[in-house]
Amino acid sequence: MDIKQLVSALLMAGLLSACGSGSSSGSGSDSPPVDKPVHPPPELSGDEPLPPANGDLLDIAIAPPAADVRVGFELAEAYQSQVTDLAVNGDGLWCHVQRLTGQDGPRLHTTRDWQPGWAQSLRCHVDAQEVFSYRPDPGAVIVDMAMQDSSRVLLLEAIPSDFTGGSPVDGNWFELRLTQLDGAGNALQRRWLEDVPAANELFYYSYEPNSDEPTRTVAEDLSHNGRPQLSVNQLARLQVHEGVPFLLAHTYGVKVYRFHDDLTVAWDRQVMPAYRWLWSGELTNTSRMAIRDDGAVAVAFELFDDDVAIYSAHFEQPLEDVNEGSDVGVAVIAGNGAPLGIFMAGLRGHSESLEGMFWRSGDLLLTGSTRYEKAGAAGGTTEWDSYLAWIDGDSGETTHSQLYHVHDEDMVRDAVLTDGGRLLLAGESGYRQADTHSQVSYGYGVIYEVTDTGEVLPLMKLDTPRNSTVNGIQVVGDTLYYRYDFDGFITHTCDQDQSLCWIKSGVSNMALDELGR
Predict the structure, then answer these.
(1) Is the full-model pTM beyond 0.90?
(2) Phi/psi of residue 513, each to 5°?
(3) Which of 79, 332, 442, 465 is most open to solvent, judged by the fewest CB atoms within 10 Å of its CB?
């Protein structure tokens, strides 16, 4: 991947509606319908697939505003208010994690998934009735949350470490702890993430100036007393499959963990060693995980061009790229933890920001956003649009791919594959920016569906004041739940008293069959 493109891509992908994406400028009108790549690939004809990893650009109609919305709540009273997680079970229990800060408090980053300093809490409801709440201990941070089953909620918390070695981001180390709560908020069990590293798991790779070969050192500060040490905002994501917890985390490089019922580690697997772009503050390569019905796990991780050589040096095997120019590594692991294969996947010649990955039978779906040059871009030469790639789960070949354009710049923030096989993408559309730090027009939250045949169905446009984005979605039965941010700082357009310049948030739901009507 081109280093300059990816630097901008990752900075953008981390920003919420408070900042935009790409490197363009202009006024807030729709892009002309003739917006196409300068040299587009041939159109899809019949059953003939598009050229691998190089899909055409598809213009999508703007969805109607959401109708008959049952608003869960909105957070608007604090200086900055944000819902960072949302989970729902089949019995109607829905939980969210929220964080608040006052104007007199420290300036905190809404672009970070987790950071100490916020007034943070977990709140769980049945319909509109709150049934319990949970606040982390002083200094601790709720990193992620998932429904384990109809009666248990699983929390992942970052707890300040007593380890003082090394140089963590923001000057503090954290350790991960799992907490299992029952339906009334009582703690059933707690367990630290214990992972005594193998000697080669502490290898750290970097490049010296003017060198084409990676340099290897031993990063002993990544572990202390058998527990991984994490910096602020280091990636850690929970996922539950048929009641079994999994964790994808940037601990000793990129690792995936499967847990027993007592929350001890059943097995773990390193798929990429530690290197610079996993620990660079806001600028990091991200990773995603998908679990198949038979328990096989796929882990996708973003890479720069030079990072492929790091993988090869560490594992002493090549990282095959059957698509010639892909920049997402994908490791497939059996349900017992044994490696099944690894390959490069994604879009050839694009700077992708990875957001979601799903198994569909034996194939993988990758989705996110990509910035690229296009005629009539929303303010310059480049623009962000969303993408979807169909990947052969055995070979890594991209069998089909598509770019999606709604209105000006478009970003995918979340995606879900429902139990019924419906693929929904959510995010933000319709904004322009002068650069990655200067959004100059409002955007709006969107949700749309991509069918098995590749047809795109616009489902919802979020009708809220000023700038908005849909950051998370989940489908349970025939109901779609979503969390969203609105307002937020928009360069050049803040009110002089700045009363509308700081991010607010909300949760809502609606019947899935009503979307798009």
Answers:
(1) no
(2) -70, -15
(3) 465
